[in-house]
Amino acid sequence: MSKLNYQERIPNNVDLSNDLSLQRALEHWQPKFKSWWKDMGPEGFQSYDVYLRTAISVDAAGWASYGKVKMPEYRWGIFLADQTNDKKIHFGDSIGKPVWQQVPGDYRSVLRRLIVTQGDTEPASVEQQRMLGKTCPSIYDLRNLFQVNVEEGRHLWAMVYLLHAYFGRDGREEAESLLERNSGDQDNPRILGTFNEPISDWVSFFMFTYFTDRDGKYQLKSLAESSFDPLARTCQFMLTEEAHHMQVGESGITRMIERTLELMRKLNSDSTETIRSAGAIDLITIQKYINFWFSSSLDLFGSEISTNAATAFANGLKGRPDEFRYDNHIEKETFYEIENYVDGKVFKDKVPMRNAMNEITRRAYVDDCNIGIKRWNRLIKKYGYEEYSLSLPSTKFRRNIGIWANLPFDINGNFLKTENYNKLISSWLPSDNDKKFINSLMIQELDPSKTASWITKPKRGINNQDIEFDYVDLN
Ligand code: BYC
After folding, report:
1. Theoretical Cys-Cys bridge with 120: which of 171, 191, 233, 308, CB 3.0 to 4.6 Å?
2. Distance from residue 350's CA to the centre of ligand 1 (Å)
């Protein structure tokens, strides 16, 4: 297994010191990244020591070490999963040929677009979350936020390495632009819609790490199948880090629901007002946040019927997540059943499998999202509230991309008259009042022995430390 070299200015396992012009180009980008981190990264805690994990190996078992480090001194680096000999293209039209170690000229612009789109989301999420330290529910959560942030920073490094190493001058320009676009910027926004949504409270943060980071998981899995081997290997290692982010989301939502249930039981009431007065978040409001972030994240998979996706599959650039699970890796004369909408009618349609790749990935994602929903519903039942359950809204609800874009479907997938839809929309999504209430709960808790009123204490600490360990040194 290749060693991660931490002796150099840019830690790496790609033998950077043997490619001086690449090393120089990346060392030129490094101070720009640091200056972006200072301006757009976590607000307020840059000079504190934070208990963070850092990659020490690309091996799935035991790849991380833990220790206190100031965020601007975090060792962001370039780590790819190890290369395997004789690796072959395993899907699409060129199946069986060797994978590419360089970018084929014909696919240069498509591959660059995929890498830039992926790279753009990473700093975007750091920007979206930059104010959350000011309202953290506990020191433990504060540390988790920063862990997520530094790793998204590293994922940016991963994509910037590919741009610099394989795309020449265009790649270097794209790497600069990744630090110039900003989340929510009117003139120069991030590329994909969800990454321009504000994340101004921790309910949104947990929803984002549950739903949007999970899109990341599925997109990275698709890119980990790529015939462009450096991209595949980069994404394989990124997936190891991504798992923690989704865990932060899932456990955060679970703790929030558990707190609500504890109060419902204690106060013997399920009234929104009573639960809110006791400082927790009623299940109806939690459902609204699920509706918002799930529907927004669905758009990140692209259109249900997509020639871009078909071409990317045919050319071996982007596969299906876990491609090995499928029997047919060529999918030339095969079809996939989807729901379509034409001239006001919803109907079952069969489309060429390759054109349906975005939808196939989206469906795998929806199934994965449902695992958490089932777990939360079991928790609700455990507390004896049979009449309550949480659910994912219909995949037709509130879409901006694809077949269902801008159509008035409700959360159950029923087509409504536009005026009815407009009247009801605020009952499905967080209203201004709901947001105001959520914001009123967002009070910073920095005492390591305490946790905010609206969320339970975590069940266990990080890396076997106590829950009350000082994960961020405030002295
Ligand atoms: N917003 O055929 P279409 C993560 C554009 S998250 C705006 O429908 P295609 C993370 C599309 O670009 C994972 N525009 O879709 C999570 C195209 O534009 P052009 C990020 C959109 O191309 C949390 C046109 O519409 N990774 O890692 O098959 C924290 C027609 O495209 C949207 C990736 O996304 C949208 N939602 O697929 C941190 C992987 N959807 O070319 C990180 C790389 C589509 O006509 N990206 N469009 O100008 C891709 O694989 C593809 O670009 C997409 C779209 C899946 C996004």
Report:
1. 191
2. 23
Residues with CB under 6 A from ligand 1: 114, 117-118, 121-122, 125, 152, 192-193, 212-213, 215-216, 219, 299-303, 306, 308-309, 318, 358, 401
Distance from Cα 163 to the centre of ligand 1, integer Å: 18
Alpha-carbon span 395 to 410, nearest angstrom: 10
Tally helices (H) and strands (E) across the chain. 13, 5
Residues 453, 279 contacting (CB under 8 angstroms) = yes
Exposure string over 346-362, b if 16+ CB within 10 A, otherwise e: beebebbbbbbbbbbbb
Classified as helix, coil or strand, 378 is: helix
Q: How far is CA 363 from CA 87, 220, 223, 317, in A?
A: 29, 16, 17, 20
Q: What is the pLDDT of residues 238-296, one digit of tens each?
A: 999 899 999 999 999 999 999 999 999 999 999 999 999 999 999 999 999 999 999 99
User: Taking the CA of residue 34 as centre, how many other CA atoms within 13 Å lie in the half-sphere pointing to its CB?
Assistant: 16
Euclidean distance between CA atoms 25 and 165, whole angstroms: 9
DSSP per-residue string spanning 398-423: T--SSTTTT--B-TTS-B--HHHHHH
